[in-house]
Each structure stands twice: as C-alpha cells, then as structure tokens.
Design goal:
The complex is a heterodimer.
Chain A: H1 2-29, E1 42-45, E2 51-57, H2 64-70, E3 76-86, E4 92-105, E5 110-117, E6 120-126, H3 129-137, E7 138-146, E8 156-164, H4 169-179, H5 193-204, E9 211-216
Antiparallel strand pairs in A: 1-2, 2-7, 3-4, 3-8, 4-5, 5-6, 8-9
Chain B: H1 15-21, H2 34-47, E1 118-127, H3 134-138, E2 148-150, H4 154-165, E3 169-178, E4 184-193, E5 197-210, E6 216-229, E7 238-246, E8 249-258, E9 267-281, E10 286-290, E11 294-298, E12 301-317, E13 322-336, E14 339-344, E15 347-350, E16 358-372, E17 383-393, E18 403-415, E19 421-433, E20 441-442, E21 477-478, E22 480-494, E23 499-514, H5 516-520, E24 534-546, E25 549-554, H6 556-559
Parallel strand pairs in B: 1-4
Antiparallel strand pairs in B: 1-2, 3-4, 5-6, 6-7, 7-8, 8-9, 9-12, 10-11, 10-14, 12-13, 13-16, 14-15, 16-17, 17-18, 18-19, 19-22, 20-21, 22-23, 23-24, 24-25
The chains are: A alpha+beta, B mainly beta.
C-alpha cells in the first residue's frame, strides 16, 4: 500500500503541475508585444467651431499582402473605428468610424472604392494602389466630434482600431453555428473524438480580421482655421 | 450564383442611420466602454447604405467611373437580366478588349456607380492541391460555370471558411481572373494543404481492478490513443484507429467516415472493434463455485470476454441543426463466465452477469437523431445539444440478445453577463429486454469519481462513492439511468495560436442507475429512502481547446481514490 500511496501522490502532483502551468504557458504565448508608439494626427475645427475633424494616416495597415489581395477581384474592407478622449481623461467624448470597401474590377482594371463616413457613402474609381491608399488610408478630415462634446481649447486624442476584412458578428455567429456541426460538410460529428481537433483547426483560421491595428494618437489642441480675408 | 440584385447608389437621407453614424455623446463613464462603443460604431458603419452629405468635409475630387463595356454581361448591375449562359458551349476566346483606365483627374463622385460588381463565372481553377482530389474541394463550392457571381455575395467568404473547416488545408484564398470573354471570370482557389494525420484522443488514468481469480489489486494504470488520417488519399474520407490498454485488457478499433457517399449528400461510416476484456462483478463476499467440487470466497467475480465485430451506418442532414443516422451492428462474443454468488443487501444471491457463456452473437439496429445549435463544440457558451437514440436487437438476424434501448440527452448553455458560462444537462435512458452488460448503463459513466469506459473497456472494480448512503453501492450495471447535472465555467484564456481556449470548470450532479430488480426487489437492509439508488457526483478542473484537440484535466479521478466512500453494505 505505501507504493500505491506514493503513485497516487505522484499522479496528483503531475496533474497539479499540468493544470497550474498550462494557463501560464498559454498566457505567455498570447502576450502582446507592447504598446505601439503614439501616432501623429491633426485635429481641427471648422470655422464655426461646430464640427471637429481628424486627419491621420493608416497606410501601414495595407501591407504587401493586403495590396496583393486587393488585386484579386474580391472586395477588401478597411474599417477604422475610433473613440475621442480629452487629454488626461479616460471618459470617451465621441466615436467615429470610416469604412472603405475596395473592389478590383478585373475587366476594367480599376479599383472601385466605396467610402462610408459619418452621414455619407461615396463611390469612386481609381486605377492604382496609390489611389486606393490616398482615399482609404489617408484619412482626411473625418468628422469626430462637435462643439457640444468637446470643450474649446481642450487637448484631445483618439483610441483607434483598424481592421482589414473584419468578420461581422452575424457572420461569426453563423460560422460558429456551422462549425458546431460540420458533418454535412465533411468532417467528424459532435461528440466524436475527431470533432474538437477539427473545430480547433477551423477556429484557428477564424480571426476577427485579416489584419488588425490598434493605436492611440498624440494629444493635441485642435486648430481653428483663420477667418477668410474680407474683400475690400 | 448570386440572387442579389445590383442596386445603384442613390442619394437619400436616413435620419436614423445618420444619427447612428454621427459622433455621439457618451454619458456613461469608464474606459471599459471604449471598445464596445467602437464595435457599435463599426456595425453601424458596416450595415448602412445611406447617402448623406458630410458636413463641411473637404473631400478630394474623385475619378469618374470607367465606361461599362457594351454587350458585356451585367457586370455593372444595370438591373437588366444577365444573358443566359450558353449551355455546354464554352465561350469563344477573344482578345481582351482595350480597357480605358479611369481618368486620373479631375476626380468626381460617381453617383451612378453600382453597389456591387457581378460577372459570369466561366470556370473554377484549383491550385495547390497536391493530394486532395479536385472533386473533394469542389464539393464545398456552390458556384458552377455559367452562374452569375456577385463579388459581395457572402457565400463567397462562407465557402472559404467551409474549405478551411474541412481540416484539409492550412490556407485557402479566393481570387478572380479574367475569363476568355468580356464579363466572364475564372474563380481561382489557392489552397495550402496541411498534415491531416491527427491525434483525436488520449486517455490516461489510474484504476483499481481485480485479477482473473477475483482478487482485488491495488492501483493499475490505463491508457489509450485515437489517431486518424482525415483525408485518406485525398478523398476526404477519414480512416482512424484507436487502441486502449489496461492490465490484461486490450481494445482495438478501426473506423472510417465518408462525408459524401458517391458524391451524394449521404454520409456513411463503418467501425471494426476487437476487445479482449474483463469485467468485475459482485458486491461482497463473492463465493466461487466450480460444479460443487471446489469453492472459494474472493473479492470479485471476474468475467473474461472477447468481442469482435463492426457496424455500418448512413446519415444525412435533415436541417441546418438536425441530423439523422441509422446503423447496423454485428458482433461475435466469447465469454468465460464463472458460477458465483454474492451478498446483495442481507441476502446471498447468484450473480447475474448479463452475458451468455461461451459464444454468442449481438446484432442490432440503431437510429440517432441529433439537434445541435451550440456556438462551439468544446467550449460552448450558448445553444442546445440534444440527442435521441433508439437501438433494438435483431434476433431474426441471429442475435442472442433481444432488447430495446432508448436514450435521451439534452444540454443547454448560457453565457452570463460577466462572460462565465452555465451548463445544464439532463440524461435519461431505459432498456427493455436482455442486453449484454457492456450495453447497459454503467455507474462509472455517470459518476466522475470512477473512470468511464474507453473503447468498451471497463477499468475499475470499485463501487461509486455513495455519498447519500443509498443502495447505489449495490449497483454496477442498470437498465435505467437518469442524470441531472450542472457546470459553471470561467474562461481563463482565449487565443488563436496553438491554444484556443482554457476554462476552469466545476460541476455537480445527481444521478441514478438501477436494474429492473433494484426496483421490483430492492436489496434488503436499506431503509425506504435508501432503496432509491442515487448518488451525487462532482468534478473540477480545466478544459483546454488546442490545435491538437480538446483536453480535460480533472481532479475527480484522483479524488475518487481518497478512501471516503461508503462501501456497499446495508
């Protein structure tokens, strides 16, 4: 019996070791590489100080792979979502978003761009990737707040997230429902020993987006354009 | 194959959407609201199609739309029906037309631009599949030459996920290239195949068994592994094998699954099983008798038996969430059954081993109806999982066991507002007739403190803990079973690399297992309430979803060895 007790103690110790270290290993595996540097952005009021706009660049999200994908004839979506804050505060003041859908027409050899911003959808065409970047990745005068939300003279900054081809929540839910029973599509059945491995492999490919970028802008007091010169 | 009608962008005002997209005041405090707010803004952006003048935003001028090709199919969504594809006649090649690039300047808004781009599908080109046969890939692609393909059709992206979901590929990319006629395209599918030999299951644990003479032994180890090639010779067929090992016990299993039998929507499966096994019977003071010449008292009565046989099944989807399987099983059994009696309650009774001595045949037909709306198979957070199974012995086909078995199980998951998960499960089952013991309900399958059966092998001789001091300690196999259980899960980690998720869980339940005799003639020596063979079970540990499969690290197996059980005794 002492041998049996020793084996039992050994098994218990091994089990404890695995259960305690597994989450730590996994957490270490998923650790972020640290916060990215603050990004430059320009905040400016309109002349009436009614609307606050932001201009910034997100060209770095469109890397060579994304550019190659853009030329493949199927839509690519670049989605920017951002929250405006007053410097020194973590209370959000306002939110804004911009979606750019890029579709390369293989016969026209041109990119069709559908740019959705607060209150507007605009369709444009361009022949080059540079044209796409200029319209989608150079964010120019994006409406991000108004005078009732932002105090005059206050320093502000943005927390932003850029996603390329984000998977919508509806689609994600549909995929998860589908993956829960893939038997009709060629893999093992729920309850089957094969099943979890299959779904794990599948879910690994189901990220939230093809590419994702999060950043914070530098704080800045929005500028006010000078009044137009009066004609004499 | 898009049914979507291309619509022109049109200027209209939608006050509600406009408000949703405008910068909003946020009255709620706290930085934890930042990302939920952004998600709301993102969803609003993705769903809107309203056109509204942006206040005072100085946009650069845009380029005009390129001219639509005259005589081309409905690539530009003019609303006119696309020309019917020419059946069985490939389009005649023609030189690509000269394409006028869009003007560089001045840019103008293109109010008349279509909201989507559509082509006629000329063909599908598959690249990168060195092993997987094209017909296996095309089984998952709903598009066919001649279809009108809308680049915004969500079916395109879903098809890509379907291919990834097969487990055959590490990467799947779709692209379009020009066809031989203007307005026609070829859908190019680039795949990168992956290793499809996978470890499905791994069993390891400790048990307490007895030798062939019925003498109890201290702890013994058991182990097993299940491995499968999930894309056999590129056909999409799964061929798997599994082995289970314990002291003096061996189980082997080979199985296949064809998800599209002869290219149809029917699935087929088959299994071959060999067991060289033993099982342990008797509650106390087991009295062996050898034809009246010799006798002895041991701890347990051990049955040694071999099973060899297999099953063939066919199934299909009845709906998105419902599936039906029907299967036939044939097994040859060879059992060495001792003559023994034991103390049941206060009385000595002969042990009913529920198996025919010597050679016998088991032949059954089984039907299973399954409903599954879970959002995840291993770490679900919401949805239902229901299973109804009916099995009957088929004596006309030579079965020595004439019985009917009905199982119903129902599970439901809820995600709490703080992201923890609650799970409730209910199981009920009944057997009528003389089922062999390995087809009956075993207490170890319901309590977490005993090892459950693996590949038909039963590793443990012990009774359940019997926390409620009922006559459950007198029960090993039963004709009726009921279990009500609950589980609480706390997500600890979520990832997209080798470990997808780790949850801590704790569970508890109440169950009962009884034979017909336990109901009609319960063992003497138990009070009225104690004659209901029920007990409690509980567990805690971690569930891990990984690229190598799902794993459960639980403590109950070890806790079951703590000598706190109330042995069967009235």
């Amino acid at each position: 019996m002492p041998g049996a007790v020793a084996r039992l103690a050994l098994a218990l110790a091994a089990l404890l070791l695995v259960t305690v270290t597994a989450p730590l290993v996994a957490r270490a595996e998923g650790e972020d590489d640290g916060d990215p540097p603050l990004r430059a952005a320009r905040f400016e009021w309109d002349r009436a100080r009614q609307h606050l706009y932001v201009s910034l660049s997100i060209r770095d999200v469109v890397d060579a792979d994304i550019q190659k994908k853009m030329r493949q004839g199927l839509p690519t979506r670049i989605v920017l979502t951002a929250v405006l804050f007053q410097a020194g505060s973590s209370d959000p003041l306002a939110t804004t978003a911009q979606t750019c859908k890029v579709t390369y027409d293989v016969w026209q050899e041109a990119f069709r761009i559908e740019l959705t911003r607060p209150g507007s959808v605009r369709s444009q065409w361009t022949a080059t990737i540079e044209g796409v970047l200029r319209r989608c990745a150079d964010v120019t005068r994006l409406l991000t707040g108004d005078g009732s939300q932002v105090q005059a003279g206050a320093s502000v900054y943005l927390h932003a997230k850029v996603q390329v081809n984000p998977v919508s929540q509806d689609l994600l839910a549909k995929l998860k429902r589908w993956v829960s029973r893939p038997t009709g599509t060629g893999t093992a059945a729920p309850g089957d020993a094969l099943f979890s491995t299959f779904t794990g492999l599948f879910l690994q490919r189901m990220g939230d987006a093809d590419r994702e970028l999060k950043f914070t802008t530098k704080t800045m007091v929005p500028t006010v354009p000078p009044p137009p010169k009066e004609r004499r | 194959m898009s049914g979507a009608q291309a619509t022109r962008g049109e200027a209209r005002v939608d006050a509600g959407l406009d408000a949703a997209l405008s910068p909003v005041s946020v009255a709620t405090r706290g930085s934890s609201l930042r990302w939920p707010l952004m998600v709301v803004a993102l969803l609003a952006t993705l769903t809107t199609r309203a056109v509204h003048a942006q206040p005072a935003a100085a946009e650069p001028a845009e380029e005009p739309a390129p001219p639509a090709a005259t005589g081309a199919p409905d690539t530009w969504g003019s609303g006119a029906p696309a020309p019917a594809p020419e059946p069985s006649t490939p389009p005649a090649p023609e030189p690509p037309p000269a394409v006028s690039p869009p003007l560089a300047a001045p840019d103008e808004p293109d109010a008349s631009a279509p909201s989507s781009v559509r082509y006629t599908l000329e063909g599908i080109e598959l690249r990168g599949n060195t092993k997987t046969r094209p017909r296996v890939v095309l089984r998952y692609v709903p598009f066919r030459p001649g279809d009108i393909i809308d680049v915004d059709d969500p079916e395109v992206e879903l098809t890509r996920y379907r291919l990834l979901g097969t487990g055959f590929f590490r990467e799947v990319q779709f692209s379009l290239k020009r066809g031989t006629r203007r307005g026609y395209v070829v859908l190019v599918i680039d795949v990168v195949e992956r290793n499809t030999i996978i470890v499905n299951d791994l069993w390891m644990g400790l048990s307490a068994d007895a030798d062939n003479d019925g003498r109890a032994r201290p702890l013994t180890a058991y182990a097993g592994v299940d491995v499968a090639e999930t894309n056999l010779a590129g056909t999409g067929i799964t061929l798997g094998t599994a082995i289970g090992l314990a002291q003096d016990q061996l189980a082997l299993r080979v199985r296949f699954l064809d998800p599209a039998f002869l290219g149809s929507s029917w699935m087929t499966s088959g299994t071959l099983l060999f067991n060289d096994a033993r099982d342990f019977f008797g509650n106390r003071d087991v009295f062996y008798s050898d034809g009246g010449l010799t006798s002895r008292i041991e701890d347990y009565a051990t049955v040694q038996y071999e099973r060899f046989g297999g099953s063939l099944g066919a199934g299909r989807d009845l709906s998105v969430a419902t599936q039906l399987w029907v299967s036939y099983r044939l097994e040859a059994i060879d059992a060495r059954v001792p003559v023994a009696s034991h103390l049941r309650g206060l009385d000595r009774e002969p042990i009913d081993f529920h198996i025919d001595p010597g050679r016998s045949v088991l032949s059954t037909v089984r039907a299973t109806l399954q409903y599954d709306s879970r959002d995840h198979p291993f770490l679900p957070t919401r949805g239902w999982y229901g299973n109804f199974a009916a099995e009957t012995g088929v004596p006309p086909s030579g079965s020595d066991y004439d019985y009917q078995r009905f199982d119903v199980s129902l599970s439901r998951w809820w995600e709490l507002p703080w992201a923890h998960v609650v799970h409730l499960e209910l199981f009920g089952g009944a057997i009528a007739g003389n089922a062999p013991f390995f087809e009956q309900y075993y207490v170890g399958d319901f309590t977490d403190f005993l090892p459950a059966r693996v590949l038909g092998l039963n590793f443990d001789r012990r009774p359940p803990p019997n926390f409620l001091h009922t006559d459950i300690g007198e029960v090993r196999y039963g004709d009726y079973a009921l279990k009500l259980g609950g589980e609480y899960r706390i997500p600890l980690y979520r990832g997209h690399r080798s470990v997808y998720g780790i949850d801590f869980f704790t569970s508890a339940g109440i169950y009962g297992v009884a034979s017909r005799r336990d109901i009609t003639s319960p063992p003497r020596g138990y009070g009225a309430a104690a004659r209901i063979p029920i007990d409690l079970t509980a567990n805690l540990g971690f569930r891990m979803d990984t690229s190598a499969g799902g794993f459960v690290f639980a403590f109950s197996n070890v806790l079951g060895f703590i000598p706190a059980r109330h042995e069967a005794a009235p």
